[in-house]
Amino acid sequence: MQDLKELNEVITAIKEEIRQGADALTTSKSVYEFKKTFLDNKQGRIGLLMKEMRNVANDQKAEFGKTINGAKEWANNFFDELDQKLKEKEQQQRYESEKIDITMPPVKIRYGNLHPVTTVRNQLTDIFTSMGFEVYEGTEIETDYYNFTALNTPQDHPARDMQDTFYLSPEFLLRTQTSAGQVHVMEAKKPPIKVVSPGKVFRSDDDATHSPMFSQMEGLVVDEGITLCDLKGMLDMFVQRIFGEQTKTRLRPSYFPFTEPSVEVDVSCFQCGGKGCRLCKETGWIEVLGAGVVNKKVLENCGIDSNKYSGFAFGLGLERIAMLKYGINNIKMLFESDLRVLDQIDD
Ligand code: PHE
Fold first, then answer.
1. Boundary-marking domain end, from 98, 127, 145
2. Quick one: 84 and 150 in the same domain?
3. Is residue 108 one of the residues assigned to a domain?
4. Which residues form the Aminoacyl-transfer RNA synthetases class-II family profile domain (predicted)?
5. In total, how many domains does the chain have?
6. Would you say 260 is a known binding-site residue?
7. What is the mean pLDDT of residues 57-67?
8. Is the pTM of this model over 0.85?
9. CB 279 within 8 A of CB 324
10. Is the CB of residue 216 less than 8 Å from the CB of residue 201?
11. Would you say the CB of residue 202 lies under 6 angstroms from ligand 1?
12. Which of 85, 102, 222, 237 is most exposed, with the fewest beta carbons within 10 Å of its own?
């Protein structure tokens, strides 16, 4: 190449080549590669034109150089613009592909919740601890002595028939009542005593409202001058907190070997307010627990002076409370872990 005319022709051809080649480019990366073939300082086609300078007449050298630089500038601008356009397009495409359809219904998140019996146990424990009770957890395997004999129910006592027992050996059994814990507490601790004891108990009993394994909560208060009135007062407070402020209690005479007198405690029906409904079997009252004044013989069995001290005890079934609270009519529903049932019970 020797003169400007020829240079201009070459440059015009290169520009045309760039324009046409650019049509096929779709990504910013391909622009970069394509650009390099023209503008790379060593290999680039436009850059290489500078080498022709030595064949050009001296008076044309300046113009020759300027023309090449002009072409370089043009190509740089051309590629910059193209690059910019493709980058915008790429970004647009990314926006499109990452677009979130906010009208889509969300995937339902399932939250777990505590089992209704656990919830009831926690609620009761909260109520009693706020009244100053300590929590004692006994063991599920007991000896005949703690479960029965110390509780004034010796071997041949007819009251043993009230609780059909799973014996592990003549001496050991699965406790039939959390009352067994009373004896341990009174043996270990001298009055004043104020404990609740939640836990599993076992009886060979199985129907819609009974299960071979169920949960109880025992309460025991022993101090000087404790009477049935203290029991009634405490129970009134307790049932109001668990079933609502309007709830009243009623004591009916009953029998337990370890309490004297013994009572069965009813609460006014929290569903109908006492008028009579299905829940309370039209009576206006619902039985919730057994209780009484601790039998002097039991205090003595535990080494507590029954002339100085007296106490009251109560025991309630946690499944029964959960069934009443949540309107469950078959105790099995609490043990089958059917999420359709458990999902509906969230307190
Ligand atoms: N242990 C008795 C039962 O399981 C309930 C109870 C406890 C009664 C404490 C009186 C005092 O039926």
1. 98
2. no
3. no
4. 118-336
5. 2
6. yes
7. 88
8. no
9. yes
10. yes
11. no
12. 102
